[in-house]
Amino acid sequence: MRICLITSRPDHPLLAATTALLTPHHRVETVDPEAEGDGEPAAPGPLADVYLLKAHTPRSLALAGSLEERGARVLNSVAATTLCQDRTAMAGLARRAGLPFAATRTVASLAELADERDLPYPLVVKSRHSRRHDLVTRVDNAARLRGLRSGWAREPVVVQEFTENSGWDHKLWAIDGRVFAALRRSELAEGGQGPTLPLALGDLPSGWQDLVRTVGSVFALDVYGVDVIDAGDGTPLIVDINAFPGIRGQSGAPEALAELALRSGGRPRGRS
Questions:
Q1: What is residue 111's three-state secondary structure?
Q2: Beta bridge partners of 127
Q3: Residue 85, by phi and psi: left (phi above 0), alpha (psi -120 to 50) or beta?
Q4: Cα–Cα distances in Å, from 203 out to 59, 72, 85, 213, 214?
Q5: Three-state SS across 19-51?
Q6: DSSP H or E run through 242
Q7: Are strands 50-53 and 74-75 parallel, antiparallel or unpaired?
């Protein structure tokens, strides 16, 4: 079987370990859309059996879209990946589906938000469009919000009321329905983002694993992450959903990804 990674980082720990599992019996290739030069990235050669879309840049999505148009199977799909890049669309779909997602309001620019009066501080302010080095911060007062204008005035943002919690995010991941978990000190906590700690699935509150799987069904994702905080007494509040995150250091994750690639690549094209 021929499996292709769409990424600039084939040495990423998850991808490298998955490749090592597959290569004894299968051909694993990499295409880096960022190395294609100017213009639209090309969709080279005959189609692979399956493509793993690890990169989320515009060029990567354009390449994956051109492959899908030719009939390729791409995991996750371009539509599902793009949806997770837009926090407004993400929140809207999650809440329509009845998922416990943080109430989210969209503002055309941070400057426009800073001009509003009587905001219910503290707030969580995020770039509307998720990307590397985007804006994600807690804002406790108007002075702090005005201070963000110097670097982010034109940035489209989403706004969420801050929910008191332990300061630890539950990092929950799924690969083809198999759930993995860890704890990470939140970037919104005092002192900023801290270490990632192991978390046994048995230590999750009741129903959280099923919640993660429901997210995958609602968003049509095969490989994804769900960031959840405990809003009190084990009540989950989803604050972010990510298509094809790193899932670093999780025992069994490379095996699950390899199995997903083989199962998906072995299906006739055109079937889900």
A1: helix
A2: 157
A3: alpha
A4: 40, 39, 30, 17, 19
A5: HHHHCCCCEEEEECHHHCCCCCCCCCCCCCCEE
A6: strand 236-243
A7: parallel
Q: Which pLDDT score, from 0 to 100, does residue 186 have? A: 87
Number of H helices, E strands in the chain: 9, 13
CA distance 231 to 226: 15
d(CA 114, CA 134): 18
Cβ neighbors of 244 (< 8 A, separation 6 or more) are 52, 53, 54, 56, 75, 76, 81, 223, 224
Write down the residue that tokens 């069904």 correspond to: 217
Contact 149, 159 (CB under 8 A): no
pLDDT, tens digit only, all 272 positions of the chain = 999 999 999 999 999 999 999 999 999 999 998 886 655 666 668 999 999 999 999 999 999 999 999 999 999 999 999 999 999 999 999 999 999 999 999 999 999 999 999 999 999 999 999 998 999 999 999 999 999 999 999 999 999 999 998 889 999 999 999 999 999 998 887 776 777 898 999 999 999 999 999 999 999 999 999 999 999 999 999 999 999 999 999 999 999 999 999 999 986 654 44
Instruction: Look at residue 271 in the predicted model and tell me its pLDDT.
Output: 44
Give me the half-sphere count of Cα atoms (radius 13 Å) on the Cβ side of residue 127. 14
The structure tokens listed for 167 are 């300061």
- Between helix 13-22 and helix 253-265 the angle, nearest 10°, is 60
**Tokens found for residue 43:** 């969709």
247: nearest Cα among 212, 214, 223: 223
